[in-house]
Amino acid sequence: MQARQKPWHGVLVATALPMDDRLGVDLDRYAEHVRWLAAEGCDGVTPNGSLGEYQTLTDSERRSVVRAAVDAAPDGFTVMPGVAAYGAAEARRWAEDAAEAGCATVMLLPPNAYRADERAVIEHYREVANAGVPVVAYNNPIDTKVDLTPALLARLHGEGLIVGVKEFTGDVRRLYQIAELAPDLDVLAGSDDVTLELVLAGAPGWISGYPNALPRSCVQMFNAVAAGDLATALPLYRLLHPLLRWDSKTEFVQAIKLSMDIVGRYGGPCRPPRAPLTDEQERIVREATEKAVAAGCR
């Protein structure tokens, strides 16, 4: 873990959430996972994102996950919870709850109950920004059907509603467009399989899925790219890429949890409606994970 300029910089792991055999949240295992990620060199965690299956959690579970992460985090280790909700009022309450728990920043999707127009998106972010905690937007038009375009992000930033954006479109051209319109807005790599390209272009952080299984190698790759050391970064990126691309697939939670199981961490089951991987999907993930581990990734 290195000193970072801002809490949302560096490698922040979108944490998977361990479930027991009855699909109950295992907070002890989760806290141990947070401590392990910190020890392995990650800069923070992002609980209650899609990888953390937040949509299936009760309010009590969701609140407890944030507090477990905060309690487990060492000094200087960021906890940036996802505060997505169907309504802006509920999202603001989650942002206020995160601030009360001691979190320095939160991550927020646009309205995701319907295809919101620009006015609704702006007011959504305005309401949550009123909670008083810095907001990192999350642009995932694949799942939300709302695209935070470069122009819209520049407006949100210009009005002081967001400090950064997790960019998940997979379009590396976006970073350059956003930088032209909003030079001070931090664009964070959000899709694991375009991380090298975005960090090389100036992204100061990576909100990442696969460090749940292979944190040291992912951190090494990120730091090498950030330092301009492509001789180190490119071979690692090529080796990891068959796994990293699962982050953009529908079955990303199941794939990452399977890789965790394979490397000796606890991934475990997912709550419905997520179904287990097919035999073919499991074979592909298993072979790619074992190949990476055999090559020294961890």
TrEMBL record:
Spans through the membrane: none
Entry-linked Pfam families: DHDPS
Coiled-coil region(s): none
Catalytic-site annotation from UniProt: 138 (proton donor/acceptor), 166 (schiff-base intermediate with substrate)
SMART domains found in the cross-reference section: DHDPS (SM01130)
Gene3D superfamilies: Aldolase class I
Keyword annotations of the record: Lyase
List of residues binding pyruvate: 207
PANTHER family per record: DIHYDRODIPICOLINATE SYNTHASE (PTHR12128:SF72)
Similarity remark: Belongs to the DapA family.
Protein name: Dihydrodipicolinate synthase family protein
